[in-house]
Structures are given as structure tokens and as C-alpha cells.
Specification:
The protein has helices at residues 9-17, 20-30, 40-52, 57-67, 75-89, 97-109; strands at 4-7, 35-39, 69-71, 112-115, 126-128. The protein is of the alpha/beta class and 130 residues long.
């Protein structure tokens, strides 16, 4: 049976550095029946983090594109992300807008969120890798 996952920046970074948490991401990526998605905003986050740490951001970019379907941001996803950002900030004051986009994409494609980000601990769609 196919499962759908949106991989957030936290999980992608763990995968790229080959950490123990990244091994969990790898096992989900390698299961051929899984459908893997990445929010376009997440691409920017991963590239920024990789470049700031002196990594090969072009390689990271290629890995994201070859291992997932990129979900582009449109006005409907932006509207949903804005509403979710407002809602989540009521209880998590530092819940980021990029996280709201990931959550909006997951709900749009009816997928789980693969993450290690503590902001997602109480989110029903979240599958924590750490």
C-alpha cells in the first residue's frame, strides 16, 4: 500500500548528513510504494542551510528533486498556510511560516509530514524521526 509523505527541511538535512535520524528518512525514501513530496519553500530552506554550512548546495538541490515531487506554492496553498500559521502561533509562539507551508502542503496532498522539528509534536500528520 502506498503512503504519502511530505519531507520537511529538518528531515532532509538529517538525510543529507547521514545521521541516525536521516536513516529513517532514507528507509522511507527507498520504499518504492511511497509517494514523496517536498514543499517548494523547503527547497529554499535546505539550500540555505547547506550553503551556510559550506556544503554542496547544487548536490542537495539535485537530491531533493530526484527523490521527491516538488509542490509549488500557489494562492490556495498560501491562503491555507497563512490561516494555519495564525492558528499554530496561538499555542506555539515561534511556529514558522515555512512550517505552516509544509503543513498546508501535507493537508493538500493528504500526506504525513516526516520531520524531527519539535514544532510538529502535536500535529496529527507528523511522523517524528527524532
Amino acid at each position: 500500500m502506498s503512503e504519502k509523505y511530505v519531507i520537511d527541511a529538518y528531515a532532509w538535512i538529517e538525510y543529507l548528513i547521514g545521521s541516525k535520524a536521516g536513516e529513517k528518512v532514507k528507509s522511507i525514501l527507498e520504499k518504492e510504494t511511497n509517494d514523496i513530496y517536498t514543499c517548494a519553500v523547503t527547497v529554499a530552506e535546505v539550500i540555505s542551510k547547506t550553503a551556510r554550512e559550506g556544503g554542496e548546495f547544487e548536490t542537495a538541490y539535485d537530491i531533493l528533486l530526484s527523490n521527491s515531487q516538488i509542490v509549488n506554492i500557489d494562492e490556495e496553498i498560501s491562503k491555507e498556510a497563512g490561516a494555519l500559521h495564525c492558528e499554530m502561533r496561538r499555542t506555539k509562539r515561534d511556529f514558522g511560516l515555512a512550517d505552516a507551508y509544509v503543513l498546508a502542503v501535507a493537508r493538500t496532498v493528504n500526506a504525513k509530514i516526516l520531520t524531527g522539528d519539535p514544532h510538529f509534536r502535536s500535529v496529527k500528520e507528523a511522523v517524528l524521526i527524532k
